[in-house]
Amino acid sequence: MPALLRNLAVLAAIGLAGFALPGGRADAQGTTLRGTVGPAFNIALVDASGTPVTHLENGTYTIVVDDKSEEHNFHLQGPGVDQFTPVETLGTFTWTVTFTDANYTFVCDAHPTQMKGAFGVGNAPPPTTTTTTTPKPKPTPGKLVGTVGPGSSISLKKSSGGSASSVKAGKYAVTVRDRSKADNFHLIGPGVNKSTPVGFVGTRAWTVTLKKGTYRFQSDPHKARMKGTIRVT
């Protein structure tokens, strides 16, 4: 019986040695990481606790990417890995990848200098880039609608339909609806002098920058009675 116990102990030791990992590293098999991109200029790779990934043990991982933008994508690259989501495609993508001792990056291919991150694996030295930046969003232009005709009517309103007698200074997208062959729509003021042709019937789109001051709109053939003003503050 003692001999049998000794043999079992030897077999157990051999079996445990067979499951030992090189260098004492934890097995990464089955570990899930989550990547996100969008909807704004955001990109990230986090672990199960939501902590940004900066270092991993080498091994095999499941990557679940949530692509929330039709303007961006998520591209994971490094030795033995080149996985990406398509630009202009929304959805969830799942990859199985194996990381080795090296540095890996994830970027948006459409904005690689603004949306990027990196992490090291195993014994690789830490990467120099580990975060992404979010640029300040550009202000959205205001919207105005100018209308002339039919008849002797002329107006300039906000896109909501409200009066544009007073607006804030800034950039505006102006949609002009010219409905009269006998008149035109003419917008005049500091830095702006735009008009539709007399005889034209249709829609025109302008982008203008309104500065503080007073602007006027009129029909040139009948400016004595078809006119109005807006104050820009």
Description of the structure:
The protein is mainly beta. It has two domains: 27-137, Immunoglobulin-like (Sandwich), CATH 2.60.40.420; 142-232, Immunoglobulin-like (Sandwich). Helices cover 7% and strands 44% of the residues. It has one helix and 18 strands. A five-stranded mixed sheet has the order 3-9-8-5-6, with no helix packed on it. The radius of gyration is 32 Å and the shape is rod-shaped. Mean pLDDT is 85; it is low at 7-27.
Please supply descriptive tags for the structure shown above:
Immunoglobulin-like; 5-stranded mixed beta sheet; 233 residues
Topology:
Layout: H1 2-18, E1 31-37, E2 43-46, E3 55-56, E4 59-67, E5 75-78, E6 81-84, E7 91-99, E8 102-107, E9 116-121, E10 142-148, E11 154-158, E12 166-167, E13 170-178, E14 186-189, E15 192-195, E16 202-210, E17 213-218, E18 227-232
Parallel strand pairs: 1-4, 3-9, 10-13, 12-18
Antiparallel strand pairs: 1-2, 4-7, 5-6, 5-8, 8-9, 10-11, 13-16, 14-15, 14-17, 17-18
